[in-house]
Task: inverse folding
């Protein structure tokens, strides 16, 4: 079992040596919906674990297996056996990302929820930066994949989607559908997601009276599988 009785008081960026102020939250839940991502899960859990070694907050990782047909559930169970910070829920069939997030939000614990995709394109090293932005008074901070590593069609269809959503909602952010986001627990639990509503969580949170911000995040090329 992994245990951490002693934690460093702050997070530091190793590349620059720049110190980031202490994260004030007592416990953070990293919520990860997934479908057929068996090759990515072990590396993802290790990366998240490494990030939280340098944050003075308790944490948990909650995997939501959305009816995967590969060995994703088996891999998650193996990770959970060796890491007491890991929990998981599994659907019998594939219901979609909105359903996975909706169930996950109902089962999270702690003060803050971090959501991220399981394909390793979302960089766990951005978690402290998003938390720091949330501490400025926001209820939701959405990652902005300013430099995307996606196929041409996906990249430009997403750009069109974000432009239209920005105009229609009046929310001045660039990337509504980025999987990497941080929520206050109250904002996360206020959401009722179904269909394709996971694409509009900033809009729904704003409608529920919560404040929304944005932070540029690193986006990595997909290493395994397909979108």
Result:
């Amino acid at each position: 079992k992994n245990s951490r009785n002693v934690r460093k008081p702050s997070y530091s960026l190793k590349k620059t040596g720049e110190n980031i102020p202490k994260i004030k939250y007592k416990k953070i839940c990293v919520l990860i919906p997934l479908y057929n991502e068996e090759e990515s899960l072990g590396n993802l859990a290790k990366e998240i674990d490494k990030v939280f070694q340098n944050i003075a907050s308790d944490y948990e990782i909650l995997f939501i297996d959305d009816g995967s047909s590969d060995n994703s559930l088996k891999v998650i169970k193996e990770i959970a056996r060796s890491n007491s910070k890991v929990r998981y829920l599994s659907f019998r069939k594939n219901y979609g990302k909105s359903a996975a997030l909706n169930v996950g939000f109902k089962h999270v614990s702690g003060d803050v929820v971090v959501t991220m995709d399981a394909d390793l394109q979302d960089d766990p090293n951005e978690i402290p930066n998003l938390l720091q932005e949330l501490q400025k008074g926001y209820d939701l901070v959405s990652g902005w994949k300013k430099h995307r590593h996606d196929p041409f069609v996906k990249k430009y269809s997403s750009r069109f989607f974000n432009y239209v959503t920005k105009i229609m909602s009046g929310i001045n952010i660039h990337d509504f559908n980025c999987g990497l986001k941080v929520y206050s627990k109250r904002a996360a639990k206020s959401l009722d997601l179904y269909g394709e509503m996971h694409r509009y969580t900033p809009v729904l949170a704003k409608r529920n009276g919560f404040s929304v911000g944005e932070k540029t995040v690193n986006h990595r090329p997909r290493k395994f599988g397909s979108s």
Summary: Residues 1-18 have pLDDT under 50 and may be disordered. The chain is about 35% helix and 20% strand. Residues 62 and 87 are 5 Å apart (CA to CA). The helical segments are 38-52, 72-82, 97-107, 127-134, 152-169, 185-189, 201-207.
